[in-house]
Amino acid sequence: xxxxxxxxxxxxxKYIEQCLMSVLNQTIDDMEVLIVDDCGTDNSIEIxxxxxxxxxxxxxxxxxxxxxxxxxxxxxxxxxxxxxxEYVTFVDSDDYISPNMMEQLLNELEGNSTCGISSCSPxxxxxxxxxxNNNFLYNSKELxxxxxxxxxxxxxxxxxxYTAWGKIYKKDLFDSVRFxxxxxxxxxxxxxxxxxxxxKKQYKLIxxxxxxxxxxxxEGSITKETKKGTKTLNFDIVTNNSIGIKxxxxxxxxxxxxxxxxxxxxxxxxxxxxxxYRNLFKYYxxxxxxxxxxxxxxxxxxxxxxxxxxxxxxxxxxxFPMFNYLSLIxxxxxxxxxxKIKNKSN
Length: 346
Fold this sequence. Notes:
By secondary structure, the protein is an alpha/beta fold. The chain folds into 2 domains: 3-216, Spore Coat Polysaccharide Biosynthesis Protein SpsA, Chain A (Alpha-Beta Complex); 232-339, no CATH class. It has helices at residues 16-24, 44-54, 72-82, 101-110, 151-156, 186-201, 232-251, 253-276, 284-293, 296-303, 308-319, 325-345; strands at 3-9, 31-37, 60-65, 87-90, 96-97, 115-125, 144-146, 167-170, 204-216. Strand 1, helix 1 and strand 2 form a beta-alpha-beta unit. The protein is globular, with a radius of gyration of 23 Å. It starts with a strand and ends with a helix. The relative contact order is 0.10.
């Protein structure tokens, strides 16, 4: 078996037929399709079963069932463990792919024995499949070859397209690597986990300029969901970036110094989001968690850009743990009272 295509499925009845048919209509058929049923509540699996019933081609299609909903990372891991192919790839069930995507990416892998990953760029589409922007950040016109020692820096800083999908991998890269379950932003965490395997096996990554993966932007997708009312995705981004920038600093100090400026800005936006909630105190632990996660030198750079009250509050939480929940309450209400007084005076 040449290739295993892993498709996690959860409540995608509107999109799964287009996704699955785009895989079954590839220009190669030496592959298996592994559908991972993550216990959705719609009729996605019925649609898939009907497609399988009427399919007359040579591609093997199997449905793997979870006993309960476990999330995207767990579904991908289930597929990896069942995969029989020499190579593996991931297609999200609300996306779809060009007919020749698999053939083109496999040709790059098989044409270069030192290559462990081949990658293409995506086309962004809306819910009905219309192109919504031209993806100008990734309009590369040349094939890129990324050396093993450069893999982490280029993936982590988005110099190559950084998602798990849109790529084909040699399966042995997953001998000791799995997606982290229970988190969002799992593709960034994969970069953090898999780079050691890339360096150990001395695998190159090849990125072709063609845009062959159609990435659907829609409400209700996993990247737009929240858990228990918190910005869970944002917290995971902070956690993963905090781990990654430590590695980045060791690998390339110059790139690190440029990267942290962008990172600081996005991180501070999350802090502001938390402070704007009416039930702010409910989010105190998240605020404190992020304060502890951010390296001191990164924190100092961003704190110096903001007002005295923000600076004082954050420093108290990060560097002086005794100023705990009461410090937050005091600072928050002090700011609220000042705002009211200011508004009345105006």
